[in-house]
Write a structure and sequence with these properties.
233 residues, alpha+beta, SH3 type barrels, seven-stranded mixed sheet, 6 helices
């Protein structure tokens, strides 16, 4: 069963940029802290959360940032930016490192954490500050100057979706769910396209290099994980 674990003290080669030690600034430009560790999916080795040291401004000391909330810092290529504020972090569930040692305890915490960051009053695209426009309601056709409705249609309502019935195949080549088709694209290209559409925030190039290094050293990382080693035993 897939579970999450931290990278901990895993040593990187000099050729790989280590995310640990990277500074993170908030939505208002204020420094939130420095990354001290990352929590990854032990099957894919994709980063799920950043463990950040608040450098004293947060009473709890450290906090978690969802990877979907983090992007490249446009003003500093060596650091990261997050679309969150200190107040949001103060109100978020407190991170407890020991929760990673227990699958059940972490699952409970993870659900609480995701509920906090994903369920907000305003509907928005996950990992973005772009607001989702709710499905359009039928639009009443207004009467003309003479008080009469347009003669070309006897319907009193028109659904906005009917204005554009064509399938946008050139842009979305395979929108049908469960089609079973797989399109291979370089990961960096895919992330750039997703960022352009607002689906996710664009990560710096060294973020992907870090994840690739973790994949190459997956066995070593899992060998240091109490949960992974207990399953093998």
């Amino acid at each position: 069963m897939t579970h999450y674990g931290s990278v901990g003290t895993q040593v990187l080669t000099d050729e790989i940029r280590d995310i640990r030690g990277t500074s993170v600034r908030g939505a208002d430009g204020t420094k939130l802290g420095e990354v001290t560790d990352v929590i990854v999916d032990h099957e894919t080795m994709e980063i799920q959360y950043l463990v950040v040291d608040s450098d004293g401004w947060l009473e709890a000391g450290t906090f978690l940032l969802p990877a979907g909330r983090v992007s490249a810092d446009e003003s500093d290529a060596n650091n990261l930016a997050a679309d969150v504020t200190r107040q949001q972090l103060e109100n978020s569930p407190q991170y407890k490192k020991q929760s990673l040692q227990s699958g059940d305890e972490w699952k409970k915490y993870d659900l609480e954490f995701k509920k906090y960051w994903d369920e907000e009053p305003v509907m928005h695209i996950k990992g973005s500050d772009r607001i989702i426009t709710p499905p359009g309601e039928p639009i009443p056709i207004r009467a003309n100057a003479g008080g009469q409705k347009p003669s070309e249609s006897s319907d009193s309502e028109m659904n906005a979706a009917n204005l554009f019935p064509e399938r946008i195949a050139p842009v979305f080549s395979d929108p049908a769910p469960g089609s079973g088709k797989v399109t291979l694209r370089p990961k960096s290209v895919a992330r750039a396209e997703e960022a352009a559409s607002g689906a996710t925030l664009l990560k710096p190039h060294w973020w992907e290099s870090f994840e690739n290094y973790l994949r190459l050293n997956k066995d070593d990382i899992k060998g240091k994980c109490p949960q992974c080693t207990s399953k093998v035993a």
